[in-house]
C-alpha cells in the first residue's frame, strides 16, 4: 500500500503519515525537521542537494555540509517511518517521491488563486478564514523561510482586501492606508462623523511611528470632507490641528519645506493654545524633520526647549519625545563634544531658572551622554544618575528610561555587568509603559546584548530582542541601531555568520536612509567582526583600523581604542 504524507506549514509545523500524526518529540534532529520543511516549501517538493546545503549549513565547508545532509536525511527517514521518504537522483533531493504528498500551503495557494480570480468577496472571505496563520512561526529567523512567509501573508492580505475585511487587514498592518480610508469612507457615507474621525486618528497614530510618514493627499481630502459634514458642530482644536499636521506631512512628502513648516507652526500654535500634548508632539516632530533637513535643528530645539520648560509637564514631555531621535544625531554632530557640552549646560540653566524638573532631567541626560561618549565614565555616572532622579520625580518617562539604559552602558564599560543588568531590568518596564515604546524598548535590548557575559547569554539576549521586534507593531529604525550592531557582533563571534550578515545588512540599510547619521564607525567595526569570523584576518584588520579612525574623528576614545586593539589581534 502506498503511504500518503501531509505537511502543515501555516501556523506551525506538523506532519501526518497515513492520517497519523508524527509526534513533535520524535524529531530528535532539528535539521531533519528543517529538511522536511525546506523541501515541503519548494515547488514539486524537490531541490538540488547543493541548494539544501547552502540553506541549512551556509557557513560549513562542502564536505561538512554534505555529511550533515546525509545525517538529516537518515534521521528524517527514521522519524517519518519510511526509508523511501527521500530520494536522491542526479543530485536532486525529493520529498516523499513514492506516494501522494500534500501541504496546507499548496492547498491555500490554490484556493486563494481561484478565489481572487473569481472576484467574489464571499469566496475570498471563506478562503481567508481557512488561513492557518503565518508560515512556520518558530522558524521566523531562518532566511530560507522569509520569502515564502511574506508571499503567503501577502496572498492572505489580498484575500482580505478583496473581501473588504478591512478591520482584519489592519490587524496585520495598522499602516495600511487604503484600509483606513475605506473604513473612513464607510463611516462617512453612514453619516457617522465621530467614527470616521476616530479612524483617521488611528491611521495618524500608526503612521506617526514612521518618522516623517503621514496620510496621503486623498486621505487628508476625505478627512476634511468628514470635518465639514453638515449638521455637525464645527471641528474643534484637536481636529483642526490634525488637519494641519496631515497637510503638513503631505507637503513634507512633496519636499515643499516652506509650506510644511508653515502648517507645522500653525498646528503647534493651535496645540499650545488648547494644551494638546499629542498634537504638540506631532508638530514638533515635523518641525524637527524640516530643521534637520535644513541644518537648523540646533536652533529649533533650543527655542522649543526654552518655551516648553515654562509650560506644564505634559507639554514638556511631548516636545522632548518628539526630538528624541534627532537628539541622538546631535550627540555626534559638528559641534563636537565640547560645543555640545556647552549647549547642554545652557539648557540646564534654562530649566533651572524655570524650575523645570523634566527640563533638568533632559539637560543632565545630554551631559551624561556626552561624557559617556567622550570616555569620562565618572562624570557620565554623575550626570546620568542626576538625570534618572529628575526624570523619575517629574514623571518624564522617556528620559528616565534612556538615563537607566545609558547608566547600564556606562557600568558595562566599568566592568560592572551585574549592575548593568539590574539597571536594564528596571528600565525595560518603564520603556514598555511609555508613550513611545517603539523607540525605547529596542534601545534597552541593544544594551542588554552588550551587558551579556557569555556567548550563550549574548545569543539569548539577541533572541529576546528579535522576538520583540517581530511581535511589535512598529520599531523605530534609528533607535534599533545599537541592537542591530550588537546582534551582528554577537552572531559573528559565535560563528553564526548567516544571522550576523542579516543584522549587518539591516544596519547598513538604516544607515543608508539616514545619511550623516552617527553609526558609520560602528558599521565598519561590525563588518570587521564578520570578516574576522570568516577567517579573513587581513581584511578584518583593515576594517578595524577604519572603524578606529572614524571613532577617533567622533571623539570616542574608548571605541577607538577597542578597535585599535582588535586590529592588532587580527593582524
Structural description of this entry:
By secondary structure, the protein is mainly α. It has a domain at 1-163: Arc Repressor Mutant, subunit A, CATH 1.10.10.10. Helices cover 71% and strands 4% of the residues. The chain has helices at residues 30-41, 49-56, 62-80, 104-118, 121-129, 143-163, 166-172, 177-189, 193-208, 217-227, 237-253, 257-274, 277-294, 297-308, 313-322, 324-330, 336-353, 357-373, 377-394, 397-413, 417-432, 437-450, 455-471, 481-494, 497-513, 520-533, 537-553, 557-570, and strands spanning 5-8, 14-17, 20-21, 46-48, 86-89, 92-95, 101-103. Strands 3-2-1-7 form a 4-stranded mixed beta sheet. The N and C termini lie far apart (64 Å). The model has no long low-confidence stretch (mean pLDDT 90).
Describe the secondary-structure layout:
Layout: E1 5-8, E2 14-17, E3 20-21, H1 30-41, E4 46-48, H2 49-56, H3 62-80, E5 86-89, E6 92-95, E7 101-103, H4 104-118, H5 121-129, H6 143-163, H7 166-172, H8 177-189, H9 193-208, H10 217-227, H11 237-253, H12 257-274, H13 277-294, H14 297-308, H15 313-322, H16 324-330, H17 336-353, H18 357-373, H19 377-394, H20 397-413, H21 417-432, H22 437-450, H23 455-471, H24 481-494, H25 497-513, H26 520-533, H27 537-553, H28 557-570
Parallel strand pairs: 1-7
Antiparallel strand pairs: 1-2, 2-3, 4-6, 5-6
Taking the alpha carbons of the first and last residues, their distance comes to 64 Å
Tell me what portion of residues adopts beta-strand conformation.
under 5%
Coarse morphology: flat
Give average pLDDT, whole number.
90
